[in-house]
Amino acid sequence: MKTKIIASLLVLCMTAWFNSCDLDSKVYSSFSETNFPKTEEDARSMLTGLYAYFKCNSGAVNDNSNGAWVWPLFTTGYGGWVGLSEMTTDEVFNIEHQEIHFNWGSAFDTYSTYAVSRNITRATYILDVFSKLTDMDKDVKNELMAETKCLRAWMMFCFYDMYGPIPVVTDPAKIDNIVYEPRPSKEEYFNQMVKDLTEALPYLYDKTNNTENWGRVNKGVAAMLLMKLYMNDHQYDKALPYAESLTQMGYTLSDDYSKVFSEEHNNENIWSVPSGQQMGNEWFFYMIPPSCAEVCGIKVAPYWGVTLMPWEFYDTYAKEDKRLAGIADRYIGTDGTLYSREGNQGERLPYGAVIVKYLLPKEQTQAGNIPLVVCRYADVILSLAEIENELNGPTDKALEYLKRITDRSGVTHTIPADIRTSKDKFKEFLLAERGRELYFEGWRRQDMIRFGKYIEYGLSKGYPAKDYMTLFPIPPKVIIESGGIVKNNPGYE
Q1: Which of 65, 278, 367, 429 would you call most buried, defined as having the most Cβ atoms within 10 angstroms of its Cβ?
Q2: Which residues pair with 338 in a beta bridge?
Q3: How confident is the model at residue 29 (pLDDT cuts 50, 70, 90)?
Q4: Residues forming a β-bridge with 309
């Protein structure tokens, strides 16, 4: 088993694309647990393999444990954690994939995403290997183990968000005899994530922007995950220290909202997921309509994009909101026709606006190597407003946090006066503002669930939304392979 894991990790380190070919080859050496890893470089290569599933490509990783293609967690297409976190909400409409509009049941199979959970076991194995490296510098060892724990917690967090607690291997003693086990309790699973992150936090990089370690997880990522975990569990008092710690890590709001997404290294981005060299950021493929040749003055190549922002959500923005620069209500088609919402001078856009958030001001003939922003300081500020409101009500402090975001967007005047009258009214406006600020960054579904609006939204749109649909069903293949040991989420039995 250990040899298989090492082999899988090495493949990931070398390439996330290619598998073995049918060419004759001569074996000059081999790797095993007795000779790998030996050096710091070996150890870093082993760890780097885990990042193969933290990319914004889709279908670009082959899971060698089952020979199937899987969706990296941060793919922007239909299937990954980010895609499912956005395309099931009020801020994104996917024309082709109607099944994601609360039509998930026994036939809704997310196995290509679920399969990534095997890498939690790989992380456990790596941690076990690192713990036994006696000749490595202590500081380097602690750093590598902290990074691995943070990545393991990230993966656990994504699956917890989608499915609730799932069976995972976090005990190295079980690696040699992996079998399906019943799903752990929510408390057990939750505490393991907290344990990994709190143990990792002191040894992680302070900041990775503008450093050779850009793209790696850091203290800010660990603190933000802990903040999110406690907020989603409505433990706002425990979330507060981590949110406040992020204000002391050197992060700031950018003066220009657009630069957050066009400049890789800036002090607002806590963590961005690299696109990968082979495919680039496939956000481009899914967002730009196939009939589009030019949008916001940027020439683009048409692909298969069918994902738009519904006009209903678009209309929550004030006309002078600077963030609208990344959302287009018109474009020029490949035939030269102007497509617009009104349709006065050309064809009408019936469904919604084009999301231009990650387009660079240059010719786009292929998917650009644009990183996907996952954690940024604006989210921290909005989270502090939410925490303050939950703990103390709509105080001056809560309002000041909120105004820092609206000030940058030039729409502070849109804050209703009556949000000061009740916690619920403040929450209502804050949820809307979180959507306007953080659209398509992977947090909308969590936000709507935490605010108690997710199922309500589904019902308002006429979707077959049920209370239990805040979680997705366990993939049928997992239930079958486990012999029924792994049970489905309630409501899907």
Answers
A1: 367
A2: 332
A3: very low
A4: 353
Number of domains the chain is built from? 2
Q: Output the six-digit token pair for 368.
A: 């650009």
Which of 314, 338, 366 is at the close of a domain?
Answer: 366
Domain limit, last residue, from 318, 337, 366? 366
Please, what is the average pLDDT of the chain? 85
Q: What is the pLDDT of residues 56-68, one digit of tens each?
A: 765 555 555 555 5
| Antiparallel, parallel or unpaired: β 338-340 and 347-348 | parallel
∠ CA 274-128-36, nearest 5°, is: 75
Q: Dump the DSSP string for 233-285.
A: TT-HHHHHHHHHHHTTTT----SSTTHHHH-SS-TTEEEEE---TTT--THHH
Give the lowest-confidence range in 55-59, 139-143, 212-216, 406-410. 55-59
Model confidence pLDDT, tens digit, residues 183-206: 999 999 999 999 999 999 999 999
Q: What are the helix and strand counts (H, E) for the chain? A: 18, 13
Residues 199 and 84 occupy one common structural domain = yes
Asked if residue 319 and residue 187 are part of one domain, the reply reads: no
User: Under DSSP, is residue 332 helix (H, G, I), strand (E, B) or coil?
Assistant: strand
pLDDT band at 23 (very low <50, low <70, confident <90, very high): very low
Amino acid at 256: D
9 confidence band (pLDDT: 50, 70, 90) = very low
pTM of the shown model: 0.89
The total of other beta-carbon atoms located within 10 Å of residue 445's CB is 22
Query: Domain range holding 296?
Result: 283-366
CA dist 85 and 92 (Å) reads 10
Q: Is residue 320 part of a domain?
A: yes
CATH number at residue 111: 1.25.40.390
Q: Are residues 45 and 147 in the same domain?
A: yes
Contacts of the segment 396-399: beta carbons below 8 A, 24+ positions apart:
398/426
Distance CA 214, CA 205 (A): 10
User: Both tokens of residue 415?
Assistant: 């804050």
| Residues 361 and 477 both lie in one domain | no
Q: Are 61 and 69 in contact (CB under 8 A)?
A: yes
Residue 95 in tokens: 């024309």
Place of tokens 């979330």: 239
CA torsion, ordered 114, 120, 122, 125, to nearest 10 deg: -150
